[in-house]
C-alpha cells in the first residue's frame, strides 16, 4: 500500500488558516473551560496560543511589508469581510426558511 503525499499548502492559504486560528482562540478556550477540560484550555491558552500568534505575526511581517503589502492587506481584509457577510446572510436565510417550514408544519397539523 503506497502512501500518497499530501499536497503542500500555499503560503497564502497557510496564512489564512493562521488568521482563522488566532480569531478562534478565545472561543476554543471558553469551549474547553465550559466542557470542564481545564488542562486543554490551559495548554491552548499558554502554550499553543502564543505559538500560533507568533507564527501569524511573522507571516504578517513577511507578507505585508511595504506599500504593496499594505494594499494587499487591505484588499484581503475587505474580501474576507465581504465573504463573512455573505455567509451570515446565507445562514440567516437558511434559518428563516427553516422557521417558516416549521410554522407551516404546525399550521397543517391543526
Task: Describe it.
With 110 residues, the chain is mostly helical. The chain is built from 3 helices and no strands. The radius of gyration is 21 Å and the shape is extended. The mean pLDDT is 90.
Following the backbone from N to C, one meets helices and strands in this order, namely HHH
Q: What's the total number of strands?
A: 0
Globally, the shape reads extended
Q: Give the % helix.
A: over 70%
Any low-confidence stretches, pLDDT <50, length ≥5?
Answer: none
Query: What is the helix tally?
Result: 3
Indicate the proportion of strand residues: under 5%
Category by helix and strand content: mainly alpha
> Nearest-angstrom radius of gyration?
21 Å
Largest sheet at a glance? none
Walk me through the topology:
Blueprint: H1 11-34, H2 38-63, H3 66-109
Helix pairs in contact: 1-2
Summarize this, please?
The chain is mostly helical and 110 residues long.
Quickly list its features.
mainly alpha; 110 residues
Amino acid at each position: 500500500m503506497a502512501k500518497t503525499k499530501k499536497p503542500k499548502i500555499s503560503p497564502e492559504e497557510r496564512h489564512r488558516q493562521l488568521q482563522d486560528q488566532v480569531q478562534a482562540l478565545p472561543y476554543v478556550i471558553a469551549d474547553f473551560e465550559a466542557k470542564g477540560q481545564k488542562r486543554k484550555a490551559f495548554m491552548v491558552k499558554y502554550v499553543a496560543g502564543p505559538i500560533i500568534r507568533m507564527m501569524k505575526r511573522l507571516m504578517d511581517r513577511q507578507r505585508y511589508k511595504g506599500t504593496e503589502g499594505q494594499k494587499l492587506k487591505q484588499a484581503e481584509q475587505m474580501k474576507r469581510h465581504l465573504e463573512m457577510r455573505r455567509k451570515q446572510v446565507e445562514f440567516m436565510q437558511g434559518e428563516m426558511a427553516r422557521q417558516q417550514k416549521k410554522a407551516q408544519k404546525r399550521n397543517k397539523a391543526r
